[in-house]
Amino acid sequence: MPTVVLEEFSSFKEIREEKLQLSHFQEFANLWAQKDPYGEGRINAMELIPMLWAMGPPLGFDDTMSTADVFQALRMMDVPVYPDKTVRYGAFVARQRCVTLGSADCPA
Q: Does the predicted model carry a pTM greater than 0.90?
């Protein structure tokens, strides 16, 4: 099972590296705003998965991935889930940028 997740994650990263555009981040911001109508900058972690499936690649996930595979991919990306079971917008976008672009200022 871990091998499948790693392969899916690698494919996911390759797709994103090839085709990621500003419009994908704008779509993500619009979908996030629907889940965070008061602009608090956080959503329930369980709301993130359907949102990423709705987006699809290159920024989201292919809908053939199981929930467990998506959670594993998010863990591998080191997306922080806070004690209140929320994901913060800034933290998620920063991790997406690190994984997708391999930024030098990203934690190891």
A: no
Tell me what pLDDT residue 44 has: 93
Q: What is the dihedral of CA 52, 13, 69, 90, to 10 degrees?
A: -50
- How far apart are the C-alpha atoms of 85 and 44, rounded to whole Å? 6
Which residues are 88's β-sheet partners? Answer: 42
Could you give the residue ranges of the DSSP H alpha helices within 1-108?
Answer: 2-19, 22-35, 45-55, 67-76, 89-101
The residues spanned by each domain of the chain are: 2-101
What is the assigned CATH class of domain 2-101?
mainly alpha
Tokens of 54: 């709705």
